[in-house]
Batch of 2 targets.
Target 1
Amino acid sequence: MANTMKMAILIATVALCMSSLLSLVYAGANINGYITGKVVCDPCINGGKPIKSAQMMVICFDKKTNDGTYARKGITNDVGVYKIAMKPGIEADYCEVRLHKNSPWKACKGIIPGKNVTTVNFNNKPVGLSNNKPVYAAADVIGYKRRRSLCN
Ligand SMILES: *[C@@H]1O[C@H](CO)[C@@H](O)[C@H](O)[C@H]1NC(C)=O
């Protein structure tokens, strides 16, 4: 009786370990890097002020066919930084990071042409590692401007 109980606990424990291991492997197989960058208010003034909870989207296209290959949304943290997971293979594609939706900062929501989108160059050296995967930086800081801002 006691032995059956121990056996049952053992099997349950092994099953639990296997499933958490499987979910780790699964995540690892589908994320092979990250794209990071920053969203600020008035990027042309002293580098700007970080915007928290700004939404952006990474969008990738096949360089030959122009077909969309990947799209994934992200959101900035307290210091205006986003980090978006990449699926395998998109290093070969053309990828952009676009501001998505409106600025969460009411007083700083103006679009600055050319600063509402940036690119990612995967030929550049990764800026770091996250979960042992390379982290690539977007080419530019993107952002919004205040109403009477000198940014344009
Ligand atoms: C960026 O802003 C320009 C100018 O307002 C606009 O034409 C373009 O559609 C915007 N791009 C994105 C990705 O939002």
Target 2
Amino acid sequence: MFEKIYSPVQKIDLHPLSNLYVKRDDLIDPYISGNKWRKLKYILQKAKAEQKNHLVTFGGAYSNHLVATAAAAARSGLQATAFVRGEEVKNEMLLICSLYGMNLIFVDRESYKNKVDLYKQYFDSDDSTYFIDEGGASVEAVQGCSEIILELTETYDHIFVAAGTGTTAAGLLKGIQDAGLNTKLHVVPVLKGGSFIADEIARYTEISNHLILHTDYHFGGYAKTTPALLAFIKKFTKETGVLIDPVYTAKMFYAILDLHQQNQIRPTDKILAIHTGGLLGLLGMKDKFYFP
Ligand SMILES: *Cc1c(COP(=O)(O)O)cnc(C)c1O
């Protein structure tokens, strides 16, 4: 499933930015959210090389990573099991996971905290299983994400990406460093207190002056929104024709415009935003949007 990839760079018109490009990783696949595909690429190769045929992973009930793992497993002829945080629920994301054949085990929030224990409890004596951390965080994921940089045929002054665990950002930073580019990498954590992302990135690559962290665009925290963010999503989508998700990419695009307004980015600077996908996240928030 990893042979072909479709992720064009597209110029978009977002007033007043005149030099904004988007790397459309959201187009890689409708269900495997862009960066989750990148992250899984080498994880699956490793699992297969180790003769494993059963992926075991972890996530919340609205996790893009779970859907991506379920789809990737089904397309690679592998089994998949997910430990889902919290009480048993039904939603659109978990429906897609089950259609792809993923086995869902709901665990209370306390037990969920120790993932290695959970894994051992269920699969300790099972040689066929392969442990994938929450969100796919791993060296393999960083390597997969660094390939985004290799695909670029032009150079940019700034590259923007949203961060949850920071693994994707680490890959981009590594890619920029390995390629010897002057590009600044702007990382927008979507959680409150996002400065921990720098420590996460430091686990995989050296923190250099390429990296700029913008910790003030979390809009209240993970999966939290404000009326201003929801209004921004509607305006952005109508103006550009590109769908964005409320958990990650909307916060990143909002940050780009805001930093431009604060003159931290010059009008002529060439900007690349990584559209990491995640559009199913809209389904989890459909009640928040007002339909006139
Ligand atoms: C998971 C996800 C991210 C965050 O990726 P990390 O590597 O965890 O920082 C960003 N955007 C989307 C759409 C995602 O699904």
